[in-house]
Design brief:
Layout: E1 2-9, H1 23-30, E2 34-43, H2 49-57, E3 60-71, E4 95-97, H3 105-109, H4 111-115, E5 117-127, E6 132-140, E7 149-156, E8 162-168, H5 176-191, E9 196-201, H6 206-212, E10 217-218, E11 235-240, E12 243-250, E13 261-267
Parallel strand pairs: 1-2, 8-9
Antiparallel strand pairs: 1-13, 2-5, 3-4, 3-5, 6-7, 7-8, 9-11, 10-11, 12-13
Helix pairs in contact: 1-2
């Protein structure tokens, strides 16, 4: 069976100033049978990113929240850059996660923060092929990270019992090797003897990723971050078992700070 698998960190559907971009359109252009989204946003009083994409494009959704926070609207002082200058005052930011380092009283009292919409930040696996939920692998939260981490695991009975895993890992500087070891241990019994795909924003380059996840093979190579002038690949699609990579590519800038990754795969079904 042939499948197109994609991963895309959508940054809650906004740029760094809070200006929305067309997430549904970007996902439509990927035309993936399986779509792993990171930094999905689900407002307390509205429809979330993953559900918007699923409703428009006919996907089934399996996701989990990683943390809560607030998402601000477009900043009135926004310029043509994707985000404010690094180190800018947090009161100009678009996203405030509850697990982040303590924000100043001035930020908490600011109109921008108070008017930002509360909601949940997470990861989701969307499929056009019928999927069965298997497990959400909880990885815990590292001390300096702003969120707990997890992996969503589903199985596609009609695609050779393919196991699909979607995740968003923490950064190397925050202790990600601990999480990668936990993930590898948890996935071993879930993927043993089965074809499997692991996709997401790994916040890590390919060579160390291959060391931390032995037995998994990179399906696509290329630079994904930052989207406007990428110098590193932190977004990956990995495969193992009876999965053959037919083609793979890094897609152009689609509005987020990460570029989407797409792989065309052949999965043995006999």
């Amino acid at each position: 069976m042939h499948l197109a698998v994609a991963t895309f960190n959508v940054h809650c559907g906004v740029d760094g100033w809070g200006r929305p971009f067309d997430v549904v359109g970007a996902c439509r252009d990927l035309d993936a049978d399986v779509l792993v989204l990171q930094e999905t946003w689900t407002p307390e009083d509205g429809i979330g990113t993953a559900d918007q994409v699923a409703g428009a494009l006919g996907y089934q959704v399996h996701g989990t929240a990683l943390t809560t926070g607030r998402l601000a609207g477009p900043h009135p002082g926004a310029d043509d850059r994707w985000m404010p200058t690094m180190g800018a005052r947090p009161a100009r930011n678009a996203l405030y996660l509850d697990g982040e380092r303590t924000m100043s009283g001035a930020v908490l009292a600011s109109t921008r923060f108070r008017e930002a919409r509360p909601g949940a930040w997470g990861v989701a696996v969307l499929t056009r092929v019928r999927a069965q939920p298997v497990e959400v692998v909880e990885l815990g939260r590292m001390g300096r990270d702003w969120s707990a981490r997890a992996a969503v695991v589903v199985r596609l009975p009609e695609a050779g019992e393919l196991t699909v895993v979607g995740t968003h890992m923490t950064h190397l500087t925050k202790g990600s090797p601990v999480h990668f070891r936990r993930l590898a241990r948890a996935l071993a019994p879930l993927t043993a003897g089965r074809p499997a795909v692991l996709a997401g924003d790994m916040n890590l380059w390919g060579p160390p990723l291959s060391v931390l996840l032995p037995g998994w093979h990179r399906a696509v190579r290329g630079r994904t971050w930052p989207a406007w002038r990428p110098h590193s690949q932190v977004d990956h699609i990995l495969v193992q078992g009876a999965v053959r990579v037919l083609a793979g590519e890094i897609r152009p800038d689609a509005g987020s700070d990460h570029r989407p990754v797409v792989a065309r795969l052949e999965v043995a079904t006999g």
